[in-house]
Specification:
The chain is built from two helices and eight strands. By secondary structure, the protein is mainly beta. It has a six-stranded antiparallel beta sheet, with no helix packed on it. The longest helix has 8 residues.
């Protein structure tokens, strides 16, 4: 099973700028922050610390700051990505067990904790990989998720 979303915003940050709830993450250097459409309201664990990694366009990038209800901030370093770029929260390239360990829980809790607003897609083995579509608001659309046997 994979949990996938996409970037919905991109912002340049300067050294010393703070990101996230309470400004707990501080940029150490100039760089790019991507905002991705997922948060604890979708079932992504709020307990994962800043620095937990996700995969953006196939490369590992750390979270910048705390997980919010509907968004996460991702430190892209010096390499920006376009809005709409896929973000793998867990899946073939990032085991859910790793995310669970960093969140201080077990994979089963994360897999069972996906919110009902998350859209599920069943993909047959060897079938096409769906592209994420993002969401405008939790009330009208849902976060993409892909379930691969």
């Amino acid at each position: 099973m994979s949990l996938v979303t996409e970037t919905i915003a991109l912002r340049r940050v300067a050294p010393g700028e703070r990101v996230g709830y309470g400004g707990t993450w501080v940029a150490a250097r100039p760089g790019w922050i991507a905002i991705a459409a997922v948060g604890y309201g979708d079932g992504y664990p709020w307990r994962v610390p800043a620095g937990n990694r996700v995969r953006v366009a196939g490369r590992f990038c750390p979270l910048a700051g705390r997980v919010s209800m509907d968004m996460i901030a991702i430190d892209l370093g010096d390499e920006p990505v376009p809005v709409g770029t896929p973000v793998e929260l867990w899946g073939p390239g990032l085991p859910v067990e790793e995310v669970a360990r960093r969140a201080g829980t077990v994979a089963y809790e994360l897999l069972c904790g996906i919110a009902s607003r998350v859209r599920y897609e069943i993909v047959a083995e060897g079938g096409p990989t769906p592209e994420p579509t993002g969401f405008a608001s939790p009330a009208t659309e849902t976060l993409p998720c892909r379930d691969t046997p």
